[in-house]
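Pasting as-is:
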Amino acid sequence: GGAALMLGGAREALLTITLGRIAAAVGVALLGEAILACGVAALARGADLTDAAHAAASAALLLVFLASLAPVLLLLVAAVLRAEAGTEALARLGGLAPRLPFTAASALAGASALAALPPGPGFAAMALLLGTLWHLPRIGGGYGRRLDNDYVAEAVLLAQAAGKPIKLMWMREDDMTHDVYRPFGLHRLVAGVDRKHRITAWQHHLAS
C-alpha cells in the first residue's frame, strides 16, 4: 500500500503542470513513503533489529512531518500566485521572484524540503529509509536444520521451569556444538548442452 501511494503520487507530480496539484501529489507520495517506512520499522522490530527499527521509525516521523508541512506551504504559495499572477502553471511563473520575493522564498523552502537532495530533510528521510533497507541482514536457508525440533523442546522445558513465557536464543558456540551435522558426501555432476545452451544430458554420481 505504501509503495503504491509513493509511486502513484510521484507519477502524478511528474505529469501535472500546476504548483497546487504538484504539492498535493508529492504529499501523497511522502505519506506512502512514510507508510513504507513504518512497515520496515515493524519488520525490523519483529526481528529484534533494534537499530534498524529506530532508523526506519525516525524516517517515518520525518516523512510525516514533511508531508504535513511542506505541501501546505506550497499550496499557500499556489493560492498567492493565483491571486497575484492569475495562474499557478509552472510554465507561466517566470520573472515573478522580484515582484513576490517572500512568496518565491516560501516556494523555494517548500520545494527544497520535499526534494530528496542533500542537505534537505527529504534527502535525510530517504537516506535513513534506504540505509535501513540496505543494511537489513538477509536470512538464508535452513538447509534442513529446521526439520529438527530440539530447540523447541528446550524452550518448552525452560518455560515450564520458569513458569512464564521465555525467548530462547542460541549463541554461535551453542549452535556449532549442538548442531545436527550431515555426513560428508562427494558429488560428481556432468551435463551436456546443445547449441542453444539447452540441457540435453545430465549425470549425477553421489557417494556418502
